[in-house]
Design goal:
With 441 residues, the chain is α+β, with helices and mostly antiparallel strands. It has 2 domains: 2-95 and 140-430, putative glycoside hydrolase family protein from bacillus halodurans (Beta-galactosidase, Chain A, domain 5), CATH 2.70.98; 101-135, no CATH class. It has helices at 2-13, 33-36, 105-117, 121-131, 299-311, 315-330, 347-352, 361-377, 408-413, 419-430, and strands spanning 38-40, 51-54, 65-68, 72-76, 82-89, 146-151, 160-169, 174-181, 184-192, 199-205, 211-218, 222-229, 232-238, 250-260, 263-266, 271-276, 278-287. Strands 1, 2, 7, 8, 9, 10, 12, 13, 14 and 17 form a 10-stranded mixed β-sheet that branches. Helix 1 (2-13) crosses helix 8 and helix 3 packs antiparallel against helix 4.
Length: 441
Amino acid sequence: MRLLTRSIITLLSLFLTVTSTSSRRLAVTTNHQADAARFTGQPAPPEEPLSLWYRRPARQWVEALAVGNGRLGAMVFGGVERERLQLNEDTLWAGGPYDPNNPEALAALPEARRLVFEGKYGEAHKLIGEKMMAKPLRQMPYQTVGDLQLDFPDSKTATSIINYRRDLNLDTAIAGVTYEINGVRFTRELFSSPVDQVVVVRLTADKPGHISFTASMQTPQKATVETEAPDTLVMRGVSGEARGVPGALKFETRLRVAANGGKTSAEKESLLVRGADSATLLLDVATSYKSYKDVTGDPEAITKQHIAAASKKSFEALRREHIAEHQRLFRRVKVDLGVTDAVRLPTDERIANFASGADAQLAALYFQFGRYLLISSSRPGTQPATLQGIWNDSMTPPWDSKWTININTEMHANGIGDDRHWRAHGEASLGRARLGRSSQR
């Protein structure tokens, strides 16, 4: 147990050493309202102790909160003027089917052996590098789908944002945002359902007629965005090229908006909701991937099927079934190290105060957050978790965010996960301060 605890704390404390390599081509402003508006008040902490929570929106990708159903992931920024959901689908990789075998390898093998047996290791190394290594030498990178953006026009003129709270409930796998502007309390709930295979966003206010937003999409991929109906926005594209291998994976992102009251309309590349009482957004992403050698799938058929099926359920049913399926896995393990008043502080403040030694529950939160990430990034029937789980905002991520088998597979199989994956998300999401001494491999 001591070794496991040391490993988990080491992995999670390493997160701070990695910064996000965001897609430079993605023209997205990330929550500058933190500088433009004044945050006031003292929001109450979440009732669930296994929660991460903060008093400000995320400014960087690594500060956003991760939700995922094993296949479909989103990073939730929690902005007031603009909510950004950075999206991933676990089969969207650069390139397409290709044969990495070097056609000169077989002919070079006898000479390579001779050089090795004669102790001419430098010459053997050079020959093997030129004639026997794969072409291309590196694998394809895992890539981002892009972003869903929700712009809230009524928030742009706010001079005061009261009792803002952004949180992630690990027990329910639901991210939340709450705040008050001009006497109106706004609430968001966001989750990626493993049951219905869609990302669900629920927008409510405690007074009628105050839900207004514009939904749009952006991506660094080669793609088009258009409205298909007054309530439907679609982005279609193809994966990027990498190392001489052309992009071959088609993908589609489909959003349907169901507003209660108000008016819903469509422009060429966006959906507008004005004066609604509430709204439920259903989003899905799919690709043409069928196998490592077959990319002839129909992403449009998949997204339409998932959205149509989920649209038949109420938000309450979507939420209830999502929670039950998540808890079936998450509640298999419990860790009780006691609870102190420190649990009432935002997560980043708890980490800053951790050296005082009065917050053992933070270690339990750390442990359970690691389990949450792995449950959310890989499930039966999905692709294995990559070096960053399922979350990646870049076209060229660190280490390509790919699979490697020298150590990463073993670490995932043991439930710990690769250090680069966990430190890329957990530490920055928990807070930007070290919990313990760490070392690089």
